[in-house]
Amino acid sequence: MTKAQTAETAAPAQSGIVDMDDLVALCKRRGFVFRASEIYDGINGFWDYGPLGVALKNNLRDLWWQDMVIAPPVGPDGKVLEIVGLDSSIIQNPKAWEASGHVAGFNDPMADCKETKLRYRADHLFVCVFEEGNVWPAFMEGEDEHAVQKRIHKLGLKGEFMRLPFTDKKIAANLAKVQGPDAKEPGSLTEPRSFNLMFKTFIGATATEDDVAYLRPETAQGIFLNYRNVLSSSRVKPPFGIAQIGKAFRNEVTPRNFIYRSREFEQMEMEWFCHPDDAKMWFDFWMEQRKDWWKKVGLRDENLLIRPHDQDELSHYAKEGYGTVDVEYRFPFTAPGFGELEGVAHRCNFDLTEHQKHSGTKMEYVDPQAPDDRFIPHVIEPAAGLTRGVLAVLADAYTADPSRPSKMFMKFNPKLAPVKAAVLPLLSKDGLPEIAEKLYMSLRGKFMTEIDIKQNIGKRYARQDEIGTPFCLTVDPETHDDQAVTVRHRDTMQQERIALDKVEAYLAEKLL
Ligand code: GAP
After folding, report:
1. Helix (H, G, I), strand (E, B) or coil at 323
2. Farthest-apart Cα atoms in the chain, separation
3. 347-382 in b/e burial notation, b at 16+ Cβ within 10 A?
């Protein structure tokens, strides 16, 4: 779990970067993402994926699985890597979470505001400390500078001031002066308290403390728990990987920024088990691979970077070794800064060693060809957020275009686009709907295809632009004569004529 998401708070929209309000509105209007339990006023930190959202998420998930498990990359030595899949249980024996360090160490510091009843990540707050004066205003990290100055002015504070993290000792000794980001009076923020992020539940009917279990906060541990099963049942040996995609749950102190930080989310994680001597080579390999993969998926290069973690933000399992790097993306609310999209960590042999200690099960690997070389494998872990990836893909695809009736279009990589083709009869008469229906029926099992007969053609194109459909296939009166349709390309709006019996091959060439 990483702490420093660079400037990961609300910032004004930059030119060329979508305004979050516009993106959230589009997601609701067109059925990508809805607030969970919306009719009951929502539930903070939980989201539902609508018809187009689930299609987009599944497409991103499938591309990851394709490139990790079905056709893993070629390694630095030119050999194809071995990576196998797994789907482990969300709830495991609670001893697993003691061994992994999550029961004791998966904590975030939080501070409560007694006046507003709001809760903050203590390590995401900073305080403006004035030499003179008895009010020190606190702000959320990444706060717009203009808003900071405005509040200071409103409070009548003058002269030099110092910015200190809320967790600084000087702040702890002067809490009475600190005014919370949303408070009217100073002295309402509590001291930071450690808060375990794991969701607890009870197994069975009695619900006593002995029955406590946890919803997994990362998919990774299920992989470590099955490391021996996979080794003995599959034809793999180090170096090899186990990949898993699935839900993870964290009781985040401050879920925010739409689906960026939620309490229920999905991860795509791969644990790469290798010889300790080769860990650095594989760490560098996976770091580059993962950034390149996000580019391949369609995120713009200028919106991606690799950032090594500072020592003080490393997770408990990555304190030794080569540390962690994040693949960061320029999210609309971090811009011009970046926020974490994926972490690549050198977990050393921390997890396997701890599970060996706690379970008594040997995790050592002995190569039958070289029995003197015994080792507990080191692990390089590329850990990506699937739902966070969906947000990056949505933000990157949003393209303003005042010349269109929709004023924008979603420029998805066609492989990710929820709908690949829309069949649109120009008129709802003269036999055109029948031809359209026949074309639609021939395509629907092969590509996600829509048929849309109602409204004028401009409105139908606008809808397809908003949902990012790469190809619109228009059936018009000429179709009767030339047995062809017009293909409209989403990005250029250019049109070309394709024979009806060539449409399937045409789409296959563009999409597969
Ligand atoms: N197994 C290592 C691990 O879980 P992490 O950096 O805490 O590492 C990996 O999580 C990825 O999961 C992050 O890079 C992010 O994309 C995603 N993620 C983590 N917490 C999240 C949250 N609360 N909401 C959405 N995505 C989250």
Report:
1. coil
2. 85
3. bbbbbbebbbeeeeeebebeeeeeeeeebbbbbbbb
Q: What is the CATH number of domain 419-511?
A: 3.40.50.800
Residue 71 in tokens? 């056709």
DSSP type of residue 70: I
- Nearest ligand 1 atom to the CA of 263 is 23
Report whether pLDDT(415) > 70.
yes
Closest C-alpha residue for ligand 1 atom 6: 1
Kindly tell me if the per-residue pLDDT of 13 is higher than 60: no
Q: 248: part of which helix (H) or strand (E)?
A: strand 240-249
What secondary structure, in 3-state letters, does 159-219 show?
A: CCEEEEECCCHHHHCCHHHEECCCCCCCCCECCCEEEECCCEEECCCCCCHHHEEEECCCC
* Residue ranges lining ligand 1, Cβ < 6 Å: 1-2, 218, 220, 250, 252, 261-262, 265, 267, 269, 340-343, 381, 383-385, 387-388
Q: How many whole angstroms separate alpha carbon 228 and alpha carbon 380?
A: 17
Of the residues 86, 225, 265, which should be mutated to test ligand 1's pocket, given the most ligand atoms within 8 Å of the CB? 265
Euclidean distance between CA atoms 387 and 45, whole angstroms: 13
Measure 234 CA to ligand 1 centroid, in angstroms: 28
pLDDT at 8 over 70: no
Q: How large is the average pLDDT for residues 183-209? A: 94
First to last CA, the chain: 36
What is the C-alpha radius of gyration for the chain, rounded to an integer number of angstroms? 26
| 309 C-alpha to ligand 1 centroid (Å) | 14
Q: Where are the domains of the chain?
A: 5-106+198-396, 108-196, 419-511
| Residue nearest atom 7 of ligand 1, based on CA coordinates | 1
Pick the CATH number of 5-106+198-396 from 1.10.10.60, 3.30.930.10, 3.40.50.720, 3.40.309.10: 3.30.930.10
Distance 384 CA to ligand 1 centre (A): 7
Write down the pLDDT at residue 144.
84
Q: For residues 160 and 204, what is the distance between their CA atoms, to the nearest angstrom?
A: 60
CA of 508 to the centre of ligand 1 (A): 35
Residue 269 alpha carbon, nearest atom of ligand 1? 1
SS3 of 427-473 = CCCCCHHHHHHHHHHHHCCCCCEEECCCCCHHHHHHHHHHHCCCEEE
Q: Measured on CA atoms in the order 286, 292, 296, 300, is the torsion positive or negative?
A: positive
Q: How remote is the CA of residue 224 from the centroid of ligand 1, in Å? A: 17
Over range 9-33, report the average pLDDT.
80
